[in-house]
Amino acid sequence: MFSLHRYRQKLVLLDPSTILVTVTTLLFLFSIIKIFNATTQVSSIRLGDLVVHDTASNIDATTNPSKSNFDLDSNSDDIISGSKSNSKSKSSLSSDTKKLTGSKLLNSQSEAPYQRENATIMTLCRDEDMWDIIKSVRRLEDRFNHKYHYDWVFLNNEEFSDEFKKRLTSLVSGEAKFGVIPREHWSYPDFVDQEKAKEGRERMAQQGIIYAEMESYRHMCRFNSGFFYEHPLMKQYKYYWRVEPDVNFFCDVDYDPFRYLRVNNKLYGFTISIYEFELTIESLWGHVKDFIKKNPQYLDKNNFMDFLSNDGGDSYNLCHFWSNFEIADMDFWRSEAYTKFFNYLDSTGGFFYERWGDAPIHSIGISLFAGRDQIHYFDDIGYNHGVYSMCPIDEQVWLDKKCSCEPNSDFTFRGYSCGQHYFKVTGKKKPDNWKDYADL
Ligand SMILES: *[C@@H]1O[C@H](CO)[C@@H](O)[C@H](O)[C@H]1NC(C)=O
């Protein structure tokens, strides 16, 4: 009580020393407030800058893919491949997906807008596939594309309906584009004898071959083999990810597979490999051998022939990458080697007289005319199409990628898969527990 009283007294008295102390204190407090204000202003400006910048570049990248979005910048390479490696070094070529883990990438995204690759997702389908392709799109957006906003090109041999466009546009986080396939890419070429083609379909139907009687299926396989990458909507891109109706993606794709291909100098990526029905491609290998004999210069010195053939190329073992899933470089399909290869095969009419699938055509082309190290097995992208699935059986991968599939459904080491053969010829190490999920 007493001291308080004295204090009051002092204030009331206002002696010179008290005034000095008070004024100094007030000045001090005032300047602190000023500094604090200034600091918050600066940081809010910075934050605003970032937000505005980010939004602008996103919009720009989505609606108007300008060159800068595709520029290769060494910073992003570092982010992907680890600060030590560079895209041309041997170690980066032989490295695996592990170094592409997403956390670094996503952290960096908040600091600067992500520079997308020159790539698009693509789908060939029809209006009647709408509900099934919607499932695929939603699943891939949730597992991957909502973070990256790649464009999505939808192609059809006729115009998509307005409803199709409206619904799919709302689901795709990049720009959705809808294209019609030019007639010359979806019709009989002059050199094909349509009567002979009809006989071929009837013969194959009697043999009980799936899709034997379908003409449209043959146009589709031919289009996927030799034309999709020439479509005006596809021409502006280098990489594509092919997605079909009602496929499933079981795991988080927490890195950019397009960037993985580019940084590691890969041309083609797959998840499932499988044996082809021999009756659909009876004459194919003979034509392939003829082509190689006439054009030996196209064979890559380091090719992957041993994936295709168990006898040095004499016969085809029917192994191929299941092409309903592909992440690949279209400039390979556009190359002289593959273009001549496709034209040669096409000129035999085999797409129509038999029922050649685009999967063996792509697989043979990439395995012969590219280096074996340029083909990548995406063993961490859990995937399902129809009755076959790829599900990571390595528990750590399953946990890290938050997969939702049953490891027991994994097809890789089952009887009808070429997985065991793939591991044998590449010398890759199988997961330790592979025998638990294998047909031996
Ligand atoms: C994307 O790739 C295609 C095919 O290689 C090329 O024609 C196009 O110029 C590339 N776009 C950019 C922006 O680099």
UniProtKB/TrEMBL annotation:
Membrane-protein topology: Single-pass type II membrane protein
Keywords for the protein's UniProt record, in alphabetical order: Glycosyltransferase, Membrane, Signal-anchor, Transferase, Transmembrane, Transmembrane helix
Keyword Transcription regulation annotated: no
Active site: E326 (nucleophile)
Family annotation (InterPro entries): Glyco_trans_15 (IPR002685), Nucleotide-diphossugar_trans (IPR029044)
Pfam families: Glyco_transf_15
GO BP term, example: protein O-linked glycosylation
GO molecular function: alpha-1,2-mannosyltransferase activity
Subcellular location: Membrane
One GO CC term on file: Golgi apparatus
Residues spanning the membrane: 12-36
SUPFAM superfamilies noted in UniProt: Nucleotide-diphospho-sugar transferases
UniProt record similarity statement: Belongs to the glycosyltransferase 15 family.
The name this protein goes by in its record: Unnamed protein product
Source organism of the structure: Ambrosiozyma monospora
